[in-house]
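Example S7 (structure tokens).
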């Protein structure tokens, strides 16, 4: 379906989502809130898609929430956003559905890896969106800022949950309490991003990474993602290893596992079908 505030492209088994409000730094308005949730809801059930990239149009990744929603005029399109075709289904019980919060939950729950290709400023809710992705690749022009405290707000969008787990509690405290901006070099140094690349190489790097993941069996990729996140939530290694055994048993009973083993023996490339 056509979107108003984002662009969805598919390159083989990779979906590329581009936030498309460059004139306002790709900030969230009511339409983008609904569309980001809608697009992730659809991608989650699209068996042809095996990896996802999120980026921004123009100079920025996402500069947070459009403050015109609170202190300026709201366009007719925005006022009617909750009645357009991207509105959540009535039977959808996802917390925060129809917003970036719902999108964050869908990103975490889906069995497909999500890569943020951060091309410029990621601030506030935009920073939280990048943190919700499984992997972050930054352009050398990328910058990151929590910004919430500077606006008289507290963190949301899952940022206070994800940031301490990514860079550690003391650094997360500093960034949230100062609201200061981190450039790409510091982001790389503190482990906020996986890598920093020249701006002109950003999308190629992200697509290459997504392609390298998408060639693997989708069930194994999804279970790996699920297992890693579950491990972050437990302190009991014995219970977690029991969980690993359960999931490994699922993997070993798939056609893709048999194909992988056969391909090794026959010294050829495996062809995975997601079964």
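Recovered sequence:
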């Amino acid at each position: 379906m056509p979107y108003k505030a984002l662009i969805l492209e598919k390159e083989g088994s990779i979906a590329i989502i581009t936030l498309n409000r460059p004139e306002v730094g790709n900030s969230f308005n009511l339409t983008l809130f609904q569309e980001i949730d809608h697009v992730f809801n659809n991608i989650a059930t699209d068996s042809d898609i095996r990896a996802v990239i999120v980026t921004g149009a123009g100079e920025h990744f996402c500069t947070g929430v459009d403050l015109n929603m609170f202190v300026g005029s709201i366009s007719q399109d925005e006022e009617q956003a909750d009645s357009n075709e991207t509105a959540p289904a009535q039977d959808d019980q996802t917390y925060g559905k129809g917003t970036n919060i719902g999108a964050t939950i869908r990103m975490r729950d889906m069995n497909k890896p999500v890569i943020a290709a951060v091309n410029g400023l990621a601030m506030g809710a935009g920073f939280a969106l990048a943190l919700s992705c499984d992997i972050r690749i930054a352009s050398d022009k990328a910058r990151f800022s929590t910004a919430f405290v500077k606006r008289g707000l507290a963190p949301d969008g899952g940022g206070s949950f994800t940031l301490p787990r990514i860079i550690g509690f003391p650094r997360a405290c500093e960034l949230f309490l100062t609201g200061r901006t981190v450039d790409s070099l510091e982001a790389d140094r503190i482990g906020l991003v996986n890598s920093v690349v020249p701006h002109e190489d950003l999308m190629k790097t992200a697509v290459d990474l997504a392609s390298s993941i998408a060639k693997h069996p989708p069930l194994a990729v999804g279970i790996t993602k699920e297992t890693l996140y579950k491990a972050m939530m437990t302190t009991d290694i014995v219970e977690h290893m029991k969980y690993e055994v359960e999931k490994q048993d699922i993997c070993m009973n798939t056609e893709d596992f048999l194909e992988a083993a056969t391909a090794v023996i026959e010294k050829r490339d495996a062809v995975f079908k997601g079964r």
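Notes on this example. The mean pLDDT is 92.
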